Structures are given as structure tokens and as C-alpha cells.
């Protein structure tokens, strides 16, 4: 197994594990977490901030399962890895957009935590993108 495949598998496993941990935290302890991360007036898309955090947590769990499956299934296809890459890029873009468009929603700690998660996801996307370029579609499909 090539070094690129090993690096990609490790990054996907860390991506999945961190998504499970963050998702579980957002589901299990939403009210105190919302108080720490969001301002009193936090409304996102018409929802209470705590509800948005809970929904994010719930959404992270199937994503984590998909990423873990991709890491453990010998990278069945480049299209699967590419889909994960694009989902990670979308998370980073959405995070930057939310931080820019609604700065009054986050406390200082919340903005910092949100940006830190986005930077971590950007790193995952960077490694995924580089790995896809190195592997090429045929190599990833047969790895």
C-alpha cells in the first residue's frame, strides 16, 4: 500500500473520529455549549442557536460513518474520496460565510472555536485533495 494511501486513510479516520466527537458533544450538551459559544440573540435561519448546534451534531454522525467507511473500505473509488473532499470544502466555506455574515451570533470563544474547527476541516480537505492528485482516479479506484 502506498504512502499516499496510508496518509489518506489516517486523515479520513481522524476526520471521522473528530466528527463523531464533535457531533456527540453538540448533541449531548447543547444548552451549556450554546451559552458558551453563542450570544443571547443567536438565531440562525430562524432557529434558536442551541437547536442549530444540535442539528449540526446530528448531521455530523452520518458524515462520520461515511468517512470511516471510506477509510476502512480500501478507498473503493476516487469519487467517494472526492465527495468527502467537497463536503469538507463546503463546511469550510459555510463556516467562513457564517462567521462573516453573522458575527454577532458568536461569543469570542464561539468564533474562535468555530474558526478552529473550520481550519481543522480545511487541513483534512487539503490532505484529501493532495492525495487524490497523487493517486489519480485509477489508483484510488484500485487501492
Quick rundown:
With about 140 residues, this protein is mostly helical. The chain is built from five helices and two strands; from the N terminus they run H-H-E-E-H-H-H.
Keywords for this entry:
143 residues; mainly alpha; two-stranded antiparallel ribbon; 5 helices; 82% helix
Overview of the structural elements:
This protein has helices at residues 3-28, 30-37, 49-72, 78-101, 108-142; strands at residues 43-44, 47-48. The protein is mostly helical. The chain has a two-stranded antiparallel ribbon. Strand 1 and strand 2 form a beta hairpin. Helix 2 (30-37) packs across helix 3.
Structural class: mainly alpha
Total of helices? 5
Identify the strand order in the major beta sheet. Answer: 1-2
Order of helices and strands: HHEEHHH
End-to-end span in angstroms?
Answer: 7 Å
Shape: elongated
Indicate the topology:
Blueprint: H1 3-28, H2 30-37, E1 43-44, E2 47-48, H3 49-72, H4 78-101, H5 108-142
Antiparallel strand pairs: 1-2
Amino acid at each position: 500500500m502506498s504512502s499516499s494511501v496510508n496518509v489518506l486513510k489516517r486523515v479520513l479516520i481522524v476526520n471521522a473520529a473528530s466528527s463523531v466527537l464533535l457531533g456527540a458533544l453538540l448533541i449531548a450538551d447543547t444548552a451549556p455549549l450554546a451559552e458558551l459559544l453563542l450570544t443571547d440573540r443567536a438565531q440562525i435561519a430562524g432557529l434558536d442557536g442551541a437547536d442549530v448546534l444540535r442539528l449540526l451534531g446530528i448531521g455530523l454522525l452520518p458524515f462520520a460513518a461515511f468517512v470511516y467507511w471510506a477509510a476502512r473500505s480500501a478507498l473503493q473509488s476516487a469519487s467517494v474520496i472526492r465527495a468527502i473532499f467537497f463536503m469538507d470544502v463546503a463546511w469550510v466555506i459555510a463556516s467562513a460565510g457564517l462567521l462573516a455574515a453573522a458575527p454577532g451570533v458568536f461569543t469570542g470563544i464561539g468564533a474562535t472555536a468555530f474558526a478552529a474547527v473550520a481550519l481543522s476541516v480545511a487541513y483534512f480537505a487539503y490532505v484529501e485533495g493532495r492525495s487524490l492528485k497523487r493517486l489519480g482516479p485509477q489508483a484510488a479506484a484500485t487501492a
